[in-house]
TrEMBL record:
Gene Ontology cellular-component terms listed: cytoplasm
Cellular localisation: Cytoplasm
Catalytic activity from the UniProt record: L-threonylcarbamoyladenylate + adenosine(37) in tRNA = N(6)-L-threonylcarbamoyladenosine(37) in tRNA + AMP + H(+)
Protein name per its UniProtKB record: tRNA N6-adenosine threonylcarbamoyltransferase
Amino acid sequence: IYILAIESSCDETAAAVVKNGREVLSNIISSQIELHKLYGGVVPEIASRKHIEKINPVIREALAEAGMKLGDMDAIGVTYGPGLVGALLVGVAAAKAISYAKNIPLVGVHHIEGHISANYIENKDLEPPFLGMVVSGGHTHLVMVEDYGKYEILGKTRDDAAGEAFDKVARAIGLGYPGGPKIDKLAKEGNPRAIAFPRAHVADAPLDFSFSGLKSSVLNYINSCEMKHQKICRADVAASFQAAVVDAIVSHTILAAKTYHIDKVALAGGVASNSALRQAMKEKCEAAGLKFYYPSPILCTDNAAMIGCAAYYEYLAGTRHGLDLNAVPNLKIGQR
Ligand code: ATP
Ligand code: MG
Ligand code: FE
């Protein structure tokens, strides 16, 4: 089964050809980061316009690199939510046009289910059930993957997502957008125990997260240093903030695995690239007797290969979408 997958939910225009769900024949990503950097974050209207410009060339390149034609495809997989509505619509419209013109089945995919599925690509032995820890720009979700396409949310953030917190703190210490990778790098030169920032626990909901208190605490620290004319060690702030985020994510994951008696854990989403998070998860999972999976950085960021993988299992389960498929900006995990 060959699937052409398309992703355009945020600021990456991406297309991929995936064979039998787990073999990536091509994975083309056109990122708009350089464009949005000027504004300190993603500007939805600019993102939509850039997607329109890039979508056809990116699809053509994905097919060329795989050495295949549209007619060779068994299905078209496309992200239809969640994300920016104008951005999603570009991918959905392209997928529907191809589906109609070539009479190829259309399979709509949930972006976060795609992020989780990225783990299948390099770990051929990974099968449900397992615990998914999604840490991305807009989501911080602990998800039980009961079966292919079958998900249950065990915990999530009450306010900011992990990636959002990284980006906001990075802006506060003048690192620019996107902040995650920059904090990751700077933190390597700092002391993670220099400043005791609060951990993101929520009373009476042990598997939920809250990062807004942590973010405020970092901002307060910076302000009070400035008022006292104390020099701020940005590397220490980065390292201490990162340690607080990593601590919360790792401890929640281990707690969920123990509570639900599951011995496999998979990290997913853009923040899954974070080196301190990967390291801490590896150590803590090993100590707890859990098997730990994580995707390569290129499969953590927004990409279409992960969408092709998720689309494959949806295709096998019989999911087909019609030409009335619409973009759903607030699509829920598990919704069809
Ligand atoms: P969502 O997937 O929730 O819809 P998104 O698609 O915008 O949101 P992703 O592309 O999955 O998010 O991830 C982007 C986020 O990951 C950004 O917030 C970015 O700062 C963060 N990020 C990327 N690399 C790192 C890193 N090494 N350390 C920490 N954060 C990182
Ligand atoms: Mg992005
Ligand atoms: Fe994403």
